[in-house]
Amino acid sequence: MSCPRHPVSRRHALTAATGLVTGALLPIAATPGASAAGPAAPQAPDPAAAASYTNPVIWQDFADLDVIRVGDTFYASASTMHYSPGAPVLRSYDLVNWEIAGHSVPVLDFGTKYDLNGGRGYVRGIWASTLAYRPSNRTFYWLGQIDFARTYVYTATAAEGPWSRLTTISTPYYDAGLLVDTDDTLYVAYGNTTIHVAQLSPDGRSQVRSQQVFSTPSSIGTLEGARFYKINGQYYIFLTRPANGQYILKSTSGPFGPYTLRQVLLDLRGPIPGGGVPHQGGLVRTQSGAWYYLAFVDAYPGGRMPALAPVSWTSDGWPVVQLVDGAWGTSYPSPAVPAPPRQVAPLTGVDTFDRTALDPRWEWNHNPDNTKWSAGNGLTLRTATVTRDLYGARNTLTHRIQGPTSTATVQLDHSGMRDGDRAGLALLRDSSAWIGLKRDGGTTRVVMVDGLTMDGNWNTTGTGTERASAALPGGNRIWLRATADIRPGSARPGTFSYSTDGTTFTRLGPVFSLGNDWRFFMGYRFALFNHATQALGGAVRVTRFDLSTP
After folding, report:
1. What distance in Å separates the CA atoms of residue 364 and residue 398, rounded to the nearest whole number?
2. What strands lie across the sheet with 66-70, from one edge to the other?
3. What is the pTM assigned to this prediction?
4. Could you read off the pLDDT of 5-22 as tens digits, one per residue?
5. For residues 60 and 304, what is the distance between their CA atoms, to the nearest angstrom?
6. Please, which of 43, 142, 432, 530 could form a disulfide with 381 given CB 3.0 to 4.6 Å?
7. Beta bridge partners of residue 312, listed in sequence order
8. What pLDDT, in 10s, does the model give residues 63-79?
């Protein structure tokens, strides 16, 4: 995953959208004797699959993907930065239809800034990380570095959890890929430009050895986003050139090399009009032996969207992405897999918050104050922060936006609001807007506010300007609605409206232009919030959330 600390510019790379460059072997000068010879080629995808799928397979923001298969089930993990819980575990039975099973990191307990209580952790936290399964103890492993300081390892016996911290390791494994070798040894490939391989102790709690295995040639620039595989006896490290290329290292001599490099793709036209080059994902094999590459496509303002393509292999053991008219296909035959045991839970639809635990589709902006919210009879949000800055308010609950366009509608009971309280539905990013309620002097108004902004260091530069308002008639319920167009491109619109009966909606305020700068990394989200500007004690209750597409 690219970081502002690194000199490479993703901004230029995001504009690239031309054809595939033929891969060439690049022997590593520091490791003579590397062999290009490989094992028998793994089986190519079955072209006789009965149906087809369309990319992106998920039009929601899930980036820096790692993907595995355990039995007949596929799992993937993604970056979540400052959102809590972190590192969602996605589940699928066909690589096309996905649900969120849980989160590998239950709480971001990496420092007080992640509590949004006097500090802030925007664009920190869960970056590119790795997910693996260890058959010997039937355990899932998640591993990721935090704040360039150390690495955290979490484990669970089921993807949905509970997950718990196994250990911390003093070496920060940047953009790590975890390999469970056939002899049960744990290895980690990691690094930016200079790539290392580490061996972990048998219990996975500590590092036994670490060694540099590759130095990226200056002609390539930056390689990162490691994924580590053993395929037919050979070791592969899958690497991304942000944000327009994918490369792979291969060793026939063991996990510590020597390695030979080949380009997989560069400046490949992607499946989302206006979006970037598919990159930084993982390889996975189906039960029948077919291989697929699950990557993401930069598609701001919505974020980074997963896209899937079949992979074949050369006779000497190198992966080749299967193209359609010289590009990553917008459609391919569906993977030939066994019939799923059930339908996965949709990523859109209605939530009435009728359970005490939140659906895993929801993530808080930073860690919440768990004494200030509850669910089971709707979602109750009690004010947790006194502030005029939404970016500094605790207990803002977020939901990914469904692309290419979607609408979120919330039904809200505001009878518990107090003077000075602000509650509503936001389009949340480093440039934000919202529709909601302001209660002042015993009177509650519905308002549209924009001009909430942050600078490049994620400090607040604008707390918002009220652009429109309306008086509320009697009653304690209101319906708030936000519609977002997250197709890549400039000046994509967000609009807001409200209703007092749940049927007739009235537009409020001007069109909001969603920003598409990549540096915040995460895409826009719908966000439910309630904070105080005078004193704590107020509350609102969300009785229904509905995410729908046209």
Report:
1. 6
2. 66-70, 73-77, 86-92, 98-105
3. 0.92
4. 333 433 333 333 323 333
5. 7
6. 530
7. 320
8. 999 999 999 999 999 99
